[in-house]
Amino acid sequence: MASFDSLGLIPQLLTAVQKKGYKAPTPIQAKAIPSILSGRDVIGGAQTGTGKTAAFVLPILQQLFQNRTKERAPRALILAPTRELAAQVERFVVDYGKGLGVYSCAIYGGVKMGPQVSLLRRGVGIVVATPGRLLDHAQGGTIKLSSVETFVLDEADRMLDMGFMPDIRKIIALLPESRQNLLFSATYSDEIRRLSKKLLDDPEKIEVARRNMAAEQVRQIVHPVEQSRKRELLVELIESGDWNQVLIFARTRHGAEKLSRYLSKAGVDAVAIHGDKSQGQRTRALDRFKKGSVRVLVATDVASRGLDIRQLPRVVNYELPDVAEDYVHRIGRTGRAEEKGDAHSLVCKAERNKLAAVEELLGKKIERSEITGFEGESIEQGFSSQKGRTRQRSRSRSGRAAPRTRSKPERGTRSRPERGRRDSNRKRVESSRTTKEESESKVQRVRKKSKREFDIKKKTARGPKKARPGETQEARRERKPKWSTARKKAAKGKKVSQGSRVKRKAPR
Ligand code: AMP
């Protein structure tokens, strides 16, 4: 097994990792640190939580420390997809770089620009930024990127998912031509491959885990459950399992907020972090969760990205993500740096396809575990599409199986009364279809009628009489308006309706 001493790190950094309690470098650190120190471009495909931050932060700190200059503009730029990740990476920079005299700052949106501007003015060696706010500074002239020697794209796959590609292009255009580039991505897609071809020059390819593989030390379990009963099941799992720290993923901001409120009402202390919360609220919620003063953190994918909570024992997918790769990112929040962890997914029938996509990505089937009292949801693929399938027994809320439903008899064995019932069903369907057609044609008739009336009104509208060639004003006024056929018809109709009204009035 490699040791930190063999990687070529300076004593100050060796002390820093020791202080952090790291006994040996993780596989990505063992491979990436020497390559980065040698000045090569690197593309790192690593599982989340494998220690990749230290893999690029340690050698960058060392390079800047060893080649100190008087430059006040940043010499290393690290781009991260979210505020939380940017803040977290910068915290690592501070922790590892204590005593080196290499300054850093985190630049992200949702907070005031002022403090960031003053930090930049004082001079920083390493900037960790999210793309949008960095561009704001660049456009405002508060940051100069022309001295960047090392450029890092962290969680590049996620950045592309979040639509940061145009911003990344703009940022790259502001960097000097000659620089070292490092790209880290938990998953690989064709887009990532294209980006790396453009960005990297003869890179060292480091892959420490199988592509798109989830952290192996994470135990994954799927709990089939009806959509409407997910909340109940969640409370049951938390209470019966005595879960004290659990990160729950919801698909939408609204969903996350609603769920955290439900849990709090049910007596499970919960907070939510999502895009609608201010940066202050997000940071406070995260701190409370990390300290253990709140049991549950409900988060959306974007907000949760990059959360590093040491020894997080458990994550729950309250809903499966729309993009299968996000599942890998989510469960990577637990089982970090060789720790063990559990990832529970509550899956309903409507999420069958998402589950299949996740399992295809993982290349394996996830273990199923039905919880007593919540059984009966059929989540297996192709279940509903198979012809002549037999229904699974549904269960009542109490958990007892409902009476067995009659399975479909084989062809030709259907008894007469059954056939009769089927025929009457068909008739009902047909008759409902006829009423639908009828109602449609009725609507069309009404539409046609009103259009006709509208046309007539348009034609009969009195427009100004046009003067004929050589006609005097007087003669024009005298002249009768020309009666079109439509007008005549309309006038006739008016008379008839007036007549009928009179007739109706007469008996009174
Ligand atoms: P990362 O993948 O960079 O987000 O790191 C995940 C976690 O692993 C962080 O909490 C690090 O402090 C921790 N870590 C990084 N390197 C090591 C190491 N060599 N040994 C133990 N833990 C580590």
Structure notes:
It is a single chain. The protein has 18 helices and 14 strands. The chain is an alpha/beta fold. Among the domains are: 4-207, P-loop containing nucleotide triphosphate hydrolases (Rossmann fold); 218-368, P-loop containing nucleotide triphosphate hydrolases (Rossmann fold), CATH 3.40.50. The strands form 2 sheets. The protein has a 7-stranded parallel β-sheet with strand order 3-4-2-5-6-1-7, sandwiched between helices. Helix 14 (324-331) crosses helix 15 (352-362). The longest helix is centred in the C-terminal third of the chain and has 45 residues, at 416-460. It is extended, with a radius of gyration of 35 Å. The N and C termini lie far apart (109 Å). The relative contact order is 0.09. Mean pLDDT is 79; it is low at 383-440 and 499-508. Adenosine monophosphate is lined by residues 20, 22, 25-26, 29, 49-54, 308, 310, 336-337. Residues 20, 22, 25-26, 29, 49-54, 308, 310, 336-337 line the site of adenosine monophosphate.
Give the helix level as a range of percent: 40-55%
Provide a count of the helices.
18
* Full CATH superfamily name of the domain at 4-207: P-loop containing nucleotide triphosphate hydrolases
Strand order of the largest sheet: 3-4-2-5-6-1-7
Mean pLDDT: 79
Examine the secondary-structure arrangement and name the CATH architecture of the domain at 4-207.
3-Layer(aba) Sandwich
Structural class: alpha/beta
Which molecules other than protein and nucleic acid are bound?
adenosine monophosphate
